Every structure is written in C-alpha cells, then in structure tokens.
Amino acid sequence: MKVFLNAIQKKPFLWLAAILGVTVAIYAPSLGFPFYPNLDDGRLILNNPVVIDFPNQMGTVFSEFVYGLYHPLTTLSFIADYQLFGTNPLGFRLHNLILHLINVLLVFFFVTRLPTNKNVALFAALLFALHPMHMESVIWVSERKDVLFTFFFLLSLLCYLNWHETGKKLWWATATVFFLFSLLSKATAVILPLVLIIVDYIRSGKINWKSIINKWPYFLLSLIFGIVNIKAQQSIDFIQPIADSYSLGQLVTMPVYSFTWYVTQLFAPVGLSIKHLYPRIMDGQMAFPYYLGWLWLLLLAVLTYRFRKGRFFLAGMLFYAVSTVLVIKIIPTGNDLVSDRYSYVPYIGLGLALGSLVIPKLEKLKPIYLYSFFGILLTVLGFASWNYSKHWESEIAIWSRVITTEPELPLAYFERGKAHQDKKDYQNAIQDYRQTLQLAPNFYQSYIQLGICYYLTQQNDVALSQFSAAVTSEPKNAMNYYHRGFLLTKMGNFSEAVSDFNQSISLGCPVIDIYYQKGLAEKQLGHWEASTQSFTTFLEEHPDHWSALTELASVYYQTQQFQLAATIYKKLESLEPGNIQIAYFLANTLARLELYNEAIGKYNVVIEARPDFGPAYLNRGNVYHLMGDNPRACDDWQQALKLDVTQAERMITTYCR
User: Fold this and answer.
1) Within-domain flag for 189
2) Which residues pair with 66 in a beta bridge?
3) Rounded distance, CA 33 to CA 384, Å?
4) Range of the domain at 621
5) Which of 169, 195, 478, 515 sits CB 3.0–4.6 Å from 537 for a disulfide?
6) Which residues make Cβ contacts (< 8 Å) with residue 578, sequence separation at least 6?
7) Is the residue at 609 inside a domain?
8) 288-342 pLDDT, tens per residue?
9) Which pTM value belongs to this model?
10) How many domains would you assign to the chain?
11) Is there a domain that residue 27 lies in?
C-alpha cells in the first residue's frame, strides 16, 4: 500500500489516467444511443441542408444563422462527421466524447499552470470529467458546440499563459486565433477576455488598467460576436419578452436563483433533466425554492469574503461568476431558466475554488486520506453519471425522466408522445397527447398530433374532430387549417378542403406543400384554372417534383392544352428515362397533337416493355386508323380485345369488316 501511495503521489498522471479511464467506461454505452431528431439533432444535423448537401451549401456555413445559432465551426464538424459516418450516430458521439476527454486534460494542464499544485488540478479535472451535470453536453450530439468551444477556449488560455511566461508574440497570436475558433464554435466564448484578466490576477495578485487595455483585440472580437449572437437569436424570436408575466421582484429573483442553482447542483445534483422551465406563478408567487436563491447568494458572499485572501479561491469564484453571467437569464431566452449543460465551463471555476480550499487541508494529513478522498469522489461521481446516462437511451427515456422530475409539465408528455409517434407506437402517443391536453386544454399542437395519429390508424372521423378542435383552440394558426384541409382531401370533401387551404394561405402558411394539396382538391372539383395556378406555384419552389408535374400535365391534357401537357411529359421522361407510364401518357398527348409518327414510336416503346398492356394496343390502333392504316389498326384492336379492353370491340365492329 505504501509503495502504491508513493507512486501516485510522485506520478499524479496515474490518477489522471484513472479519471480518463472511468470517464470512457461511463460514456462508452452511450456511443450506441440513437440521434434525438426532435431535440435539435434533426434540424442541426439530419435535416440540415448545409450538412447533408455538402459541398453545394458550403457557402452558407459562415453567412447564415442555423435556427437562431451562429456556430459555423460546429456545423463544419457535423459536416465532417456526416461525410465519414453518414447517419450513423456512433461517429458523432465518439467525436463528442474525444473532445470531452481532451478537455479534461486541458483543464488539468490549465489549473496546473496558474500555478497551483497538481492535486488541485486533479480535483478540478475530476469534477469536470465525471460530474453528471456535464452529461448533457457530451451525450447530446447537438451540444457539440459546448465541448468544441471549450476545447478552443482552453487552448487559448494555455497559449495566453505561454505568452505571459515567455513574452513571445507568437503565443499571443495563437491565443487570439484559438479564441476566434472558440467564438465560431459557440458565442458563449465572449467571456474569455474577462477570464484572461482573472488569470492575470492569479499570476500577479493584482489587476491594473494596463492588463485590461492590452486585451482590446479580445474585447473587440467579443463585442462583434456578441452582436452577431443577439441577431441570430432575434432571427427566431429566441429572446423572450417575459416582463408582463412576472413582477419586478420575481424578475430579479430568477437570475439570483440561476446563479446559485449551479452551485447547489455541484454538491447535490438532484432533478437532473433536459428541461427546467421558467417558474409557474401560483396565487401571484413563485414556488419557495426560487426565493431561497437569495439565501444561497448570501452564503456564497460570506464564504467568498471569508476566504478572499485565498487567491485561487477568489479567482475560481470570479471565473464561475464570469462564465455564468450569460446563462443566468438576465436577458430571458428560450423557455428554460436553467440548463444542466450551462455548467460545463463554470464548473472549472468552482473546481478551482473548492479544490483550493479542500486539497491543502487534506495534504496536511497522511497521503491515504487525500487519495481516499479522490477514490470516493471518483466512485460517487462515476456512479451518479453512469446512473443518469441510462435516461439518455432514447427520446422516450429523456422525456420520461423529465416527467419523473416534473409530472405536471405538459410539454414533457407532448414531446414523449412525438417520440412514441416516430416509432409508430400510436397508442402510447395518443395517451401522452391526451395527458398533455388534460394538463393544458389549449395546447393545440396536441390536437394536431392526435389528428395525425388517428389518421395514420385509419380513424379519419376522429382525426377530423381533433383537427377541428385545433382550429377552434387556435384559429389564427395557419397549420391547423392546413392539416384539416389535408385530411378533408383524403376524405373526398374537396370543397371544404380548398376553403381550409385558402384560409391557411391567408394566415401565412409556411409549408409550400399546401399548394400541391390545394391543386389536388381543385382538380377533383374541376376548377382547372385554380388547380393550374396552385401546381405552378408549388413547382416554382420544387421544379422537378414528380407528382406535381404529373398532375399539372394531366390538368393540361384534360383542358386540351396538349402542347403544354407534352412539354411536361417530355420533362418527366428526362427526369426518369424508361418510365413506361409517362411514355404512354406522352404517346396519348402526341396523338391529340396529330403527331402520329411520334405517337406510334412511343406506343411501340410501351408495348415492347409491357406487351400485356391492352390500352396501348387500343390507342395505337386508333392512331393507325387516323393514319389510314386499317389493317394494322385492326390487328392492334384484336390484341386489345384479347387483353380485355372492351372498347376495342366497337372499333372492330365498325372498321374491321
């Protein structure tokens, strides 16, 4: 035992290796987990045209926002994964895990270089590696931005420390480049200039104006990317106007609660979940725990004052404060007051602060006490993270966990219902949607999803009642009319369907497919001009849409606009050479245009491919008759009759005597 203790005392990298090994063991099962398509993995990766249509969309990576986000390097990392692994989540998850493991090492080296002793650095690295609050940032593929921006963030800090020690401008330039990469991965990196000032304080014991002013390039980059991030969030109304929902005291209390929540979760990570919504107001008040944030803030202030002379403790607390200032919702964004993943970088500061208090005291005792402490912490955090990882096995598991922590949250049942629906488990989906409506009767999206589930299980009348309930609940929502119109078309109620489609369009329906569906209904009603306009509008966005082209060609044929019909059928032939159905329709159209030889050529192609297709013989016979070649016409009509095309009998009786 003594030999072992001496070994790890002299070689703390053995502990670091153990930390990395346990981290790999805990996260390894998650490598087999699927994507979470309804939780950003769909829109940021699987359905993101920039990712799946590389390199055609490459130009938009740096020039456009992605669902309220500007993180082009993160998107590029998704593109690289997609090129290597396709839609297999294993490669994406492995990428996240590798970045996290590297970040653990960087945290260790950063804290060591501040400088403090390696045991404090081990403590900070252990917390960072294994705390269950960080699981969200690592397991959730879409949160690549957390692990990627932190990777560049820590590299920038280490290069800055090198510059601080050597004075070589190359290190300053390298630190700046890594900072830019961090900003391009996630805008949260704007805090780096403030962290650099804290680093200066740690190393010199003071902060002066020169230290602040010489960081103006960093502050300038932070300002630019801060503005860009605000614009990105405004592009999807992510910044929430909640002032009317809460009193001034409540608006002030919520950031205080957020600031202290991450501290309390460090020691007691309870209620871990993907969702922690803004507080509900009951009788004009938030729940009591939110107000406890003031007590925790007072205790933190007293503790910080008590140990203010401990440079590393104070610096760690300042690091924590700086890195949480953007996530405690001083400016409300989204619908979550706090999120587990927002602890990823702030816990570096808390690890430094707590380690600088605890580790020196343990070092004064026998080595076995210190390393027993590390062993216990490794075991406890490892078990907690392993246990929590099971709740990330699927979207159903994720939302079931949310329901466990907040059983009266309608959104959780709704999202779990969508997850069941994606797996075609419509019965459980229906149960969750009904539970959503029981908790929130005006949650109109549940009516829509119920309608879809009932439609997919061939219960059209029940589905129609759900779509109508959605319209009643939210009459200004364009999609409610779109869904009802779609079902009415399937049920053959074309007149009411067109009415719903028109109402949806007037409300600004964002789905271009509505013009295709509207065109189908108008065609059935014989509203040829309206149908033509609808299909044409749809084809302006999707010029090669097969079904829309086919339907429009059919409308032109039925309205005797044969030249237009022939043009579309020829385009369809170019899109899918060898399609016998299109060749047949084109032959019929060419015959109506009196282009008999071309028509005969197309009928020959059809008959060669489908010698049992009677209508082709009938119509080719008709063309031969119009060309004055009755013997061939009669032969074709005879063959058509053998293939049970009864119309051929009249032609034979009339012209083949």
Assistant:
1) yes
2) 69
3) 19
4) 578-657
5) 515
6) 609
7) yes
8) 889 999 999 999 999 888 887 788 899 899 999 999 998 887 777 777 889 999 9
9) 0.86
10) 2
11) no
